[in-house]
Structures are given as structure tokens and as C-alpha cells.
Amino acid sequence: MDVSRSTPGHGLGLNLVAAVAAAHRGTVKTVPTSVGLTVEITMPPAAKDTSKLEVAAE
What we know:
Blueprint: H1 13-23, E1 27-33, E2 36-42
Antiparallel strand pairs: 1-2
């Protein structure tokens, strides 16, 4: 039996979520509720993609 399946805690899951959010300038917040835990992920608005230039066909 895998010990990590019976050990209390949140494991790596929330750390991975926080790392991905931080890489995209976002935040992660945990909020206790009466029935468990809510995870709030806030991400900034997407930047306008300026990498594509439209060129008129001649």
C-alpha cells in the first residue's frame, strides 16, 4: 500500500497549482469552508498577442 494515500495533507497538488499560477503572475488562496477547503485561483487578464503581424498580400 502506498503510504502517501493514507497520510493526511494536501501533498504536492497545491504546490504545483501555486507554481503554475505564479509562473503566469497569478495567485492561489485556500479558504476553509464548513465542508472542506476551497481553492481560489486568480489570474491576470491575458495580454494582447502582438507576436502575429498581419501583412497585406500584394
